[in-house]
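Shipment paperwork, digital attachment
Item: protein structure file
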Amino acid sequence: MKHMIISIFGMVLFMLPGVVFSGADEICCTWVNPAYTSANPPQMQIRNADGTFADYITQEANDPLKRGTFTIMKKWKDSEGNVWYQIKWQGPRDERGYELAKISDKGNTLELVMRYDDYPSAIDPANENYRCYTRH
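Attachment content:
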């Protein structure tokens, strides 16, 4: 019975903003962009359902450039079917940042912009912190 209560409580938590989600989310997978050939931005990013992430310089790399955690603070779907996120993340040495991210309506493209002081107000490809990945 105790396990059942925890499971039900976990489903309620999933719906509250600012709580690490349980289970799979659209953003949790491997994202790649072969055009990225340096560490900034990384060529491959893996986001896991447990709220952890790892960035890799290439798809073939064994050791990540950076590991950290992330929390979905807000999630919504727009009228075109795109899924939007406001995400807080923490990397090594207490590095912290904010992302505005969008997964395309077909679920195969992730675009994001990150900042260190607050959430970006828009996803602008001209922004130096703009990233674009495809689902791998």
